[in-house]
Amino acid sequence: MEQSGTIKMTGKEKDARWYSEKFRGNAHKPEHYTAFRYYFLFAALVTRLAPDGDESVLDIGCGPGHLAGLLRDVGVTRYCGFDFSEARIEFAKSTYPDREFHVADIFETDLFETVDYNTVVCTEVLEHIERDHEVLSKIKPGTRFLGSVPSYDSAAHVRYFTNKSDVEDRYREHFARLRIDSLPHGVKGERIYVIDGIIM
């Protein structure tokens, strides 16, 4: 295992097929978004949105779409989510048919240019991608960014972080304003680091 500072570099990226097979293998059933394991994170992010609900959200790596349901219920009407896993997008479309979803590769999609958005959400995605800086560089300057990365390893992670400073050091160059917060996640002291900023 390679180590860079205290950012732990772990494995190789997984492809779309791997994520779809893993999702189908878990036999996901429709569930309310409050039952989703990252609901605590989604709820924390939603409290950071403007009280007038004037966001237009682009959700990068939206997975099964549960954040879309929560955003709808708090009054965010303009939403577009994408993920490269066909199985996850099929699930999202069937569970939240009133929301817009696309199967798209983050490095090939034109959604960064064609969708009207002022807020990007990117939860538990950057740690899965070797070219994470390239992802952030695709977002329009001035966009509000709400994302997260973990403090723990997993089969599909290419990196994880051991403290807030490492998250800030890795991503600071992309932001005009940046705040990193830490949320507890799990019984073994794991953390989720929340990234909140304005893209430069």
From TrEMBL:
It comes from the Bacteria. Keywords: Methyltransferase, S-adenosyl-L-methionine, Transferase. InterPro entries: SAM-dependent_MTases_sf. Its EC number is 2.1.1.-. Pfam families: Methyltransf_23. One of its GO terms (biological process) is methylation. One of its GO terms (molecular function) is methyltransferase activity. PANTHER family: METHYLTRANSFERASE, UBIQUINONE BIOSYNTHESIS O-METHYLTRANSFERASE, MITOCHONDRIAL. This is Putative S-adenosylmethionine-dependent methyltransferase/MSMEI_2290. It comes from Symmachiella dynata. The lineage of its organism: Bacteria, Pseudomonadati, Planctomycetota, Planctomycetia, Planctomycetales.
